[in-house]
Amino acid sequence: MVRRSAETRVHVREHAFEGKGSITVRDLLRGPEEMYEKGRVFAHTTLQPGCSIGYHVHENESETYYILSGTAAFDDNGEKTTVHAGDVTFTPCGQGHGIENCGDEPLELIALILYR
Amino acid sequence: MVRRSAETRVHVREHAFEGKGSITVRDLLRGPEEMYEKGRVFAHTTLQPGCSIGYHVHENESETYYILSGTAAFDDNGEKTTVHAGDVTFTPCGQGHGIENCGDEPLELIALILYR
């Protein structure tokens, strides 16, 4: 099956985990059904400059971000760092993360949440 | 954990599924271990113009491609179509696919294989 770009489901989420501004999430797969119940998110997420996803912990699942473009301040389970295009962040079950676009361009990333 | 771009594992695969030329695969997660045994591939794959992944069937797993850039001829379980940046292809368990870069630029895609 091919799902054209215009057919993908896009939603805007305000203050995700008490973050700043909004994020735009393009679902690449539709929830657990299309993921054979192995996870719940496979998405292309965009944060405009100054926007963020607040810190949150993943229980019983991991989340991976793959940075496609832009620059971000990343909170890696309490440790602060900067991530750029090509970097991968992996937040295993029981750990937390948060991310903020600290650059001048949109921050584009692929997010994958897999169940433990 | 943050894995920097330069630390990601990149491998070149020749004639993937009897395809043309080679493909370059950047592993975003390392196999089933980092995927909690829920799948086996989460990768950024590049095909230069004229290169292809030959047609193959996925048993007991699905594979999703998310086209980041470029233009490709896609064989969707026997049906031929053209895909572009932003399109998602979903090959469920028991179906097959193949893809060829039919454009002038590199074809970049995210590949995700999840077990059934």
TrEMBL record, chains A, B:
Keywords: Metal-binding. Pfam families: Cupin_2. It comes from the Bacteria. The keyword Kinase does not apply. InterPro entries: Cupin_2 (IPR013096), GPI/OXD (IPR051610), RmlC-like_jellyroll (IPR014710), RmlC_Cupin_sf (IPR011051). Residues 44-111 form the Cupin type-2 domain. The keyword Cell membrane does not apply. GO terms for molecular function: metal ion binding. This is Cupin domain-containing protein. It comes from Candidatus Avichristensenella intestinipullorum. The lineage of its organism: Bacteria, Bacillati, Bacillota, Clostridia, Candidatus Avichristensenella.
